[in-house]
Structure formats: C-alpha cells, structure tokens
Amino acid sequence: MNDIIRSDIAQAVDCSPARSVIIVHGTSTMEETAQYLAQHLKNTDKTIVLTGAMIPLKEFAMSDGGFNLGYAMAQAQNAAAGIYVSMNARLFKTGAVTKNTRVGRFVFLTE
To answer: 3-108 — its CATH code?
Structure first.
C-alpha cells in the first residue's frame, strides 16, 4: 500500500454516489489509509468505514473477517458522516485508533 493507491481510493470514494462506503483493507496499513482519507476527504458527507481481518482467511481457517465485514456494514448505515476503522465489534474514529499487535486487536489510542 502506498499513497498512489490511497489517492486512487480517495478519488473512487469521492466520485461514488454512495453515501456509505466500506473499504476492506489489510490491517498493517489500515490506520495510515484512514488518516490519508481523512486528510484528502476533509469535507465529505459520506460515512467511510475501513475494515479487515486480524486472522486472514486462508485454508478455511477461522477468520474474523466475515464478522468484521458484517459489523462494518451495520455501522456504515448508522454512523454519522466521517471516516472510521471498524474491527472487533468496535467503531473507531480515524486518529483515535491503533493496532495493538501485543493483544492482537485494534484499540483506542487511550487504552
């Protein structure tokens, strides 16, 4: 993931007629992409939710990806306009979230 791809994502989101947008994203750089979108889509009236999986869907292993996607879909329909990260049945405002690899989940920066 790099800023060229992030720019393409921002442009696609900005041009979309949808009011709610879900972006499935790798968790290693999800925070950076959320921050990039927040900087480049400052005046958006859309609800943009990034989500992914801490446990990759591979060889039929139990993944949290399906649950996270379903939760993100529900949040995208109910949250106010803005850019969010949705993981582990929690909705985080961009800038208030970090991936805690020690505990294997996304947490609020204050936790």
So the answer is: 3.40.50.1170
N-to-C CA span, the chain: 27
- Residue with token string 């925070």: 31
Of 87, 74, 91, 84, give the one whose Cα is nearest residue 35.
84
Per-residue pLDDT in tens (0 to 9) along the chain, 111 residues: 999 999 999 999 999 999 999 999 999 999 999 999 999 999 999 999 999 999 877 766 788 988 999 999 999 999 999 999 999 999 999 999 999 989 889 999 876
Domain ranges of the chain: 3-108
Q: Which residues pair with 100 in a beta bridge?
A: 105
Q: Report strand pairing: 47-51 vs 82-87.
A: parallel
